[in-house]
Amino acid sequence: MILTDSLLLDYKRCQRRAFLNLYGNSDERSSERDFLLKLRQESQKHITSVLTEFYPDHHQPQSPRKDWEKRVAETKTLMEQGVDCIYDGFLAHALREPSQEREGLILLGHPHLLVKQSGNSVWGDWFYTPVSIQLGRRPKPEYKILAALYAQLLAVWQERFPPYAEIILRRQNRYRVDLVEWLPRLHSTITECLQTLVQRQEPEVFISRQRCNLCHWYDHCYAIAQSQSHLSLVPGVTPSRYESLQEMGVVTVTSLAEACPVTMAETFGNAIASQLQTQAIAIMENRAIAKTNLPKKPLPNANFEIYFDIEAEPERNLDYLLGVILINRQTSEETFYGFIAEEPEEEGNIWQEFLTLMQTYPTAPIFHFAEYEVETIKRLAQLYNTPKKERDQLLNRCFDLHHYVVNTVTFPVENYSLKTLANWLGFQWRDSNASGDQSVWWYDQWLETRDRNFLDLVLRYNEDDCRATWILKDWLVNFFEKNNL
Ligand code: SF4
User: At CA 333, angle to CA 328 and CA 334, rounded to 5?
Assistant: First the structure.
């Protein structure tokens, strides 16, 4: 068996993903999402820019990557020759030689760079340090584990540990990994990972929106979770709460709804126990349940109302679409305004267009979903010198429906995203695969190809987001009126 760095990375992110990547049925694996392709392209661009700027004279093994043994040998030869920098070299070490009873175990890593340093090693008066080039802004734990792995593999080869392993992050920020801290963590991760993979212990499904969102096993895992009525599909059930629930014998949504409230409260405290049980009841009975501690300020109703949603590309720090649906309650007219930056440099222009529309309806409340719109108003106002008074007036008109929902109603849903809530209310997006990530991909495609169809897709998705926000607001108002709340 070959334990590669990418398998170890998968394991750090989700043990089940590593297992499925090795033993799963490839027919159950979904095709790669466009957004992942974009990330991969960006990562390659980042690597190229680091190479051009800092290591233009690097050497690179020439054997095909799938021919890993030859590539390992070539890397070793380059190190023996003492070249200054090796790009995309392969390092390997046999943890266990194959025998008649058991297959061998090989650790295989491919650090982005191996950089020559002065100091004694098996090669002569030089040795190498590993450098990983990552797209993230921060040195995540999984990056540090990989950096430690490369240091460990190098230590075996050159008979000395490098003093550090380096990670070059976004904007060429350099970070040195403390090997004293991370080598022991690497060793325990390898031990756990091998136990799972060699003994073929399939880790249980646990759906976590953040982690599973871009995973190619999502459809497969989600189907299993649904068929098991798995507790990870109940909002509020975190991995640690899940463990506690299992210890209590609570393993399904039904058993959570029917669990003893006293025992639940002893474990989680009154507030969380009640929240979890209400959530389970809402799902079981497929009905929304009003919370008891309702906010004092009800949602406003006005002749003109604005539903606002932004499309953004955080990597570029760019808000490329400010979308608004304006509703005239008296005439039942609705108008969509999609202020879109056809060039990234036009962000300031669309901000001004947006401000002009907001000034035309100065008393209309602005409904949005989650905090991003408010944060963006603050960011753009500062960036484009909007007077503080105008900015504050705008902010005072904003109503965050996500905040309102989570404080007022328990919905029978698996998460509180706009899409999930609006779907439960019967609203469907015109493009079923549309999402914020997909919108970023479409926008990038527009910039690359100048095909206006991509801009239309972005606009249509954004308009549907605004419409979903509107539907949610109307539903909330009706719900509270009907229930006399
Ligand atoms: S969908 Fe989630 S649980 Fe399943 S393998 Fe992927 S990350 Fe792991």
Answer: 90
230 pLDDT above the threshold of 90: yes
Its pTM surpasses 0.90: no
Q: Is 374 helix (H, G, I), strand (E, B) or coil?
A: helix
Distance 213 CA to ligand 1 centre (A): 8
Which residue's C-alpha comes closest to atom 1 of ligand 1? Answer: 218
- For residue 205, the ligand 1 atom closest to its alpha carbon is 3
Query: How do the domains of the chain map onto residue ranges?
Result: 2-198, 229-286, 304-482
17 lines ligand 1 (CB under 6 A): yes
pLDDT at 96: 84
Q: Are 30 and 216 in contact (CB under 8 A)?
A: yes
Find out whether 465 and 422 touch, Cβ atoms under 8 Å.
no
Rounded to whole angstroms, the Cα distance separating 438 from 376 reads 20
Atom 5 of ligand 1: nearest residue by CA position: 17
| Cross-strand partners of 289 | 410
Residue of the nearest CA to atom 7 in ligand 1?
Answer: 212
Q: Kindly tell me if the per-residue pLDDT of 263 is higher than 70.
A: yes
> Is there an atom of ligand 1 within 6 Å of 221 CB?
yes
State the distance from the centre of ligand 1 to the C-alpha of 207, rounded, in angstroms. Answer: 7
Q: How far is Cα 435 from Cα 463, in angstroms, rounded to an integer? A: 12
Q: Which residues contact 341 (CB under 8 A, 6 or more apart)?
A: 318, 319, 320, 321, 347, 349, 350
The predicted structure's pLDDT at residue 326: 98
Residue 181 has pLDDT above 90, yes or no: yes
Task: Provide the CATH topology of domain 304-482.
Answer: Nucleotidyltransferase; domain 5 (3.30.420)
CATH class of the domain whose range is 2-198: alpha beta
Res 296: pLDDT = 63
What superfamily does domain 229-286 belong to in CATH?
5' to 3' exonuclease, C-terminal subdomain (1.10.150.20)
Crossing angle, helix 347-360 and helix 372-383, to 10 degrees? 110
Condensed to tens digits (0 to 9), the pLDDT of residues 311-325 reads: 999 878 899 999 999
Kindly tell me if the per-residue pLDDT of 295 is higher than 70: no
CB 85 within 8 A of CB 116: yes
426 CA to centre of ligand 1 in angstroms: 27
